[in-house]
């Protein structure tokens, strides 16, 4: 810009500032409060579950419901065994591989459905059908077609989680605020900037929701496939100990895997989500 | 001023329609604006005012006629070298970016160097009275404050021409009134040419040096009024009130005539 303009700008700030009444903090919308209260409440809620479990176990045989102390002790014993990590790792690997397929396929399908009327009409009934079919069916079909191996598990997980991701992305694209795109055009943003600065950020919360939902589905179908037909992974261990009527081990393995998933949720998903949506004032207040 | 800064020369705009004659939105609009003036375009809602702004901004082409800015005929393929800032009816801020980043966004697009951009963002936030709010996210601000941020964004690129599309019409009257007052102060201080679209007669009379009253569908020039009241103005000024009364009378007559025309056509 020429010096002339900068000059006017200088004059501007000096001249006008006193006329324009400076806004006060009182004009603000009520702020969001994020405190440790939530953490305490969650801990309390979990603790109450453990208490109920403990009390119930006092009245039941250990073959039906072993107490939390026994189960946790067994889990810690298991954590001393190297094989435990092999099984855990195998299942996590299958879940992650299946999720990658689901996210890639779901993103493409969801974007097509969101962006094109033709795509939507062509694909929506398929997605809804695929979403409705019980995931065990995918597990059985995958084992029949691909054999008793990792591919079957990964394919079953991928097919199960794809519709969930697709549906979320579909809704995400439809929810894009077009007035922001028009703003970008009016200021002559480049196409790349419109995509990167205006479109992608609007879709990200939907992608996160899709990921979380897909993760929940993925590990359930992973254990089912392992239980039906594979000889490794958490599902296999669950099936093995169930065959021996060892309730303590079944619960120990369930607890361990649940902890792994909660770690993924609280260490990766939640912080990412909080960071990406930090601009949003909380609804609950 | 020898040469008018912005010339709208017999502009016509039609949108093609399938199986029907094309829809004429603007039909023979004429106006010449001097540099530094604040021209408001007053017309009924949905009369093609936004289309006109798009054409001036190089987002749409005229069907016939010419739009000349600073001696350069503009169109989609020959956008004006003149820098154009925009303020919309709604703030249209990115809720996931801070106030400062929002104002900065168009500057990044123009490759303004970082330090210069920082300085400008702060200067224009100060100018709209939000100097201390740069780190806030827009959803924490009230509607009036958000609209001020939008105004700062429009000004921060230091436009030679500012297009304002009913920027105060979604605000409550008290806030709008305050912002109008500030708007004229800022306009006088910056010396930019402003095109202010509105359907609020009082607003148009209060703000502008010149007022173009246009008819509805298709949009043509109905009246071209120079408002020769010195600034700073007060909304209760009798001279402004006289002009408002006169324009209102005429505006209603025009609306009724249009209604009668349509009635005859049916």
From TrEMBL, chain A:
Listed InterPro entries: MetI-like, MetI-like_sf
Gene3D superfamilies noted in UniProt: MetI-like
Keywords: Cell membrane, Membrane, Transmembrane, Transmembrane helix, Transport
UniProt main location, coarse: membrane
Membrane topology: Multi-pass membrane protein
Domain ABC transmembrane type-1: 88-268
Subcellular location: Cell membrane
Family: Belongs to the binding-protein-dependent transport system permease family.
PANTHER family associated with the record: ALIPHATIC SULFONATES TRANSPORT PERMEASE PROTEIN SSUC-RELATED, ALKANE SULFONATE ABC TRANSPORTER-RELATED, MEMBRANE SUBUNIT
Protein name: ABC transporter permease subunit
Automatic annotation (TrEMBL), chain B:
Name the UniProt record assigns to this protein: ABC transporter ATP-binding protein
UniProt cross-references to Pfam families, sorted A to Z: ABC_tran (PF00005)
GO molecular function: ATP binding
Record-linked SMART domains: AAA
InterPro entries, per database record: AAA+_ATPase, ABC_transporter-like_ATP-bd, ABC_transporter-like_CS, ABC_transporter_ATP-bind, P-loop_NTPase
Upper taxonomic lineage: Bacteria, Bacillati, Actinomycetota, Actinomycetes, Pseudonocardiales
The ABC transporter domain, residue ranges: 6-241
UniProtKB keywords: ATP-binding, Nucleotide-binding, Transport
């Amino acid at each position: 810009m020429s010096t002339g303009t900068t000059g006017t700008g200088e004059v501007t700030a000096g001249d006008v500032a006193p006329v324009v009444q400076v806004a006060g903090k009182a004009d603000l919308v009520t702020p969001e409060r994020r405190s440790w209260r939530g953490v305490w409440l969650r801990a309390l809620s979990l603790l109450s579950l453990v208490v109920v479990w403990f009390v119930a176990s006092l009245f039941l045989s250990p073959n039906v419901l072993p107490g939390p102390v026994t189960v946790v002790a067994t889990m810690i014993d298991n954590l001393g065994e190297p094989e435990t990590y092999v099984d855990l790792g195998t299942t996590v690997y299958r879940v992650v591989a299946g999720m990658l397929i689901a996210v890639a396929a779901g993103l493409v399908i969801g974007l097509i459905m969101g962006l094109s009327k033709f795509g939507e009409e062509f694909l929506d009934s398929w997605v809804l059908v695929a979403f409705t079919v019980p995931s065990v069916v995918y597990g059985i079909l995958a084992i029949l077609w691909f054999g008793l191996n990792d591919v079957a598990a990964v394919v079953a997980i991928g097919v199960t989680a794809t519709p969930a991701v697709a549906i979320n992305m579909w809704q995400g694209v439809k929810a894009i605020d077009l007035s922001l795109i028009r703003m970008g055009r009016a200021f002559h943003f480049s196409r790349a900037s419109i995509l990167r600065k205006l479109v992608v950020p609007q879709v990200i919360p939907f992608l996160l929701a899709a990921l979380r939902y897909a993760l929940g589905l993925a590990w359930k179908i992973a254990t089912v496939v392992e239980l039906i037909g594979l000889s490794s992974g958490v599902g296999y261990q669950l099936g093995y100990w169930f065959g021996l009527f060892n309730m303590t081990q079944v619960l120990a393995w369930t607890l361990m895997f649940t902890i792994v998933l909660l770690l993924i949720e609280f260490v990766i998903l939640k912080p990412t989500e909080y960071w990406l949506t930090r601009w949003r004032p909380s609804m609950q207040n | 001023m020898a040469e008018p800064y912005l010339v709208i020369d017999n502009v016509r705009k039609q949108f093609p329609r399938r199986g029907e004659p094309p829809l004429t939105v603007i039909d023979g609009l004429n106006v010449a604006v001097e540099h530094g003036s604040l021209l408001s375009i007053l017309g009924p809602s949905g009369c093609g005012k936004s289309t006109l702004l798009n054409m001036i901004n190089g987002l749409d082409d005229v069907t016939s006629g010419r739009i000349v800015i600073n001696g350069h005929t503009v169109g989609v393929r020959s956008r004006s070298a003149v820098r154009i800032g925009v303020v919309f009816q709604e703030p249209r801020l990115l809720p996931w970016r801070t106030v400062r980043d929002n104002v900065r966004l168009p500057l990044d697009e123009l490759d303004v160097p970082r330090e210069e951009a920082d300085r400008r963002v702060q200067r224009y936030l100060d100018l709209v009275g939000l100097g201390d709010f740069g780190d806030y996210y827009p959803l924490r601000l009230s509607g009036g404050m958000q609209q001020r941020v939008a105004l700062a964004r429009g000004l921060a690129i230091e436009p030679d021409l500012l297009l304002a599309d009913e920027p105060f019409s979604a605000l409550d009257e008290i806030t709008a009134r305050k912002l109008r007052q500030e708007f004229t102060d800022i306009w006088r201080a910056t010396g930019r040419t402003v095109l202010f679209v509105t359907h609020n007669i009082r607003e148009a009379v209060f703000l502008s040096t010149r007022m173009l009253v246009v008819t509805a569908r298709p949009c043509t020039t109905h009246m071209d009024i120079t408002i020769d009241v010195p600034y700073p103005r007060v909304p209760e000024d009798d001279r402004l009130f006289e002009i408002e009364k006169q324009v209102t009378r005429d505006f209603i007559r025009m609306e009724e005539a249009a209604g009668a025309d349509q009635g005859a056509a049916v």
